[in-house]
């Protein structure tokens, strides 16, 4: 072992393969092949509603923060109301899409 010959000792164990542990790792499906299967109108509606939902959440959150932390109750209330209205719009559009 330490004689400098570079040969393995007969008492040395085999090298450990860490890939032999656990299950095989699954491969993710290719998302580009499935994107063409979706109707462009549905995709446009989805991303539009995602954008409106993000604006609604931001408006409602900022409204609460303006009202509580900056003591601007009127402006904060208007932002919360705008967020609730936009959230209701998203809910309405999703429900009408699901009923079709």
TrEMBL record:
Residues 1-13 have a biased composition (Basic and acidic residues). This is DUF7322 domain-containing protein. The chain crosses the membrane at residues 45-67, 73-92. Keywords: Membrane, Transmembrane, Transmembrane helix. Residues 1-36 are annotated as: Disordered. Residues 36-95 form the DUF7322 domain.
